[in-house]
Design brief:
Elements (H helix, E strand, L loop, with lengths): L11 H19 L9 H4 L6 H6 L10
């Protein structure tokens, strides 16, 4: 449920569309560049902490790393 991933909810696509455009608003409001667009496939999982990856050679990072 990290990004409101409930396909049965009628507001599902609206919420995801707002997340996808949020970086544009951040750039406009702050003037900062380098904001990354929301990518549901990448941001649907949390990254594995780098210390875990370094301490365990049998583990590989996921899409978020």
């Amino acid at each position: 449920m990290r990004w409101y991933n409930n396909p049965k909810n009628p507001d599902h696509s609206t919420v995801l569309n707002c997340l996808a455009d949020k970086y544009k608003v951040q750039i406009e409001q702050t003037g900062l560049t380098g904001a990354l667009p929301f990518d549901y496939n990448r941001h649907s999982v949390l990254p594995i902490p780098s210390t875990e990856l370094q301490n365990n050679p049998n583990i590989r990072g996921n899409l978020a790393n």
